[in-house]
Design brief:
Blueprint lengths: L6 H11 L4 E4 L7 E3 H17 L7 E5 L4 H13 L2 E4 L6 H11 L3 E4 L5 H9 L3 E4 L2 H5 L15 E2 L1 E4 L5 E4 L1
Parallel strand pairs: 3-4, 3-5, 4-7, 5-6
Antiparallel strand pairs: 1-2, 8-9
Helix pairs in contact: 2-3, 4-5
Length: 171
């Protein structure tokens, strides 16, 4: 009989088998290189942050980041912790972000340093909990807080704009 594995089970296997292999390498000027072991630690730190912010599993979390290590960590944390995840494209206009928020109705929006004040004001106008994060925020979280973590099955929510410009959803 074929065993169906989850994405997180496969990721955890890679972390255990190849902890020192490169999991992420930035092509930007900062040349950040993260091993699977360190990526796993950063995911656990993000889950600690979720707990500290009282974000419950099954909450719908959106993110607005450029393609970055933070967006990867947030995605993997949602999958591992049992949170729903819906990214909002970083280069969307203010109207597109507003439409996305209205369509998705997130419980929380995580965003990075490069998000404009105009976009951030949209979060407040929609009574959406917003949390600014950066890699340095995660690095500052103590690893001693990891003991409460458990792994659940996360859910990925993706919506795209088709040729008509209408939003669609994949659950």
């Amino acid at each position: 009989m074929t065993k169906i594995r989850s994405f997180i089970e496969d990721f955890n296997s890679i972390v255990n088998l190849y902890p020192e292999r490169i999991a992420f390498e930035s092509i930007k000027e900062d040349e950040t290189i993260i091993t699977y072991k360190n990526l796993d630690i950063l995911i656990k730190k993000m889950l600690v942050l979720f707990s500290e912010k009282d974000i419950k599993p099954n909450s719908l979390i959106c993110s607005i980041f450029p393609n970055s290590l933070e967006s990867l960590i947030l995605f993997l944390s949602c999958m591992r912790g049992g949170y729903k995840y819906a990214p909002i494209h970083f280069n969307y206009t203010q109207k597109e972000v507003k439409d996305s928020i209205n369509f998705i109705k997130p419980d929380y929006i995580f965003y990075g340093d490069l998000v404009s004040e105009e976009i951030i004001s949209l979060f407040e106008n929609h009574n959406t909990n917003s949390i600014k994060i950066s890699l340095s925020n995660l690095i500052d979280i103590s690893e001693s807080k990891f003991n409460f973590l458990s792994e659940n099955n996360g859910k990925l929510y993706i919506f795209t704009s088709g040729t008509s410009g209408k939003q669609k959803s994949i659950v």
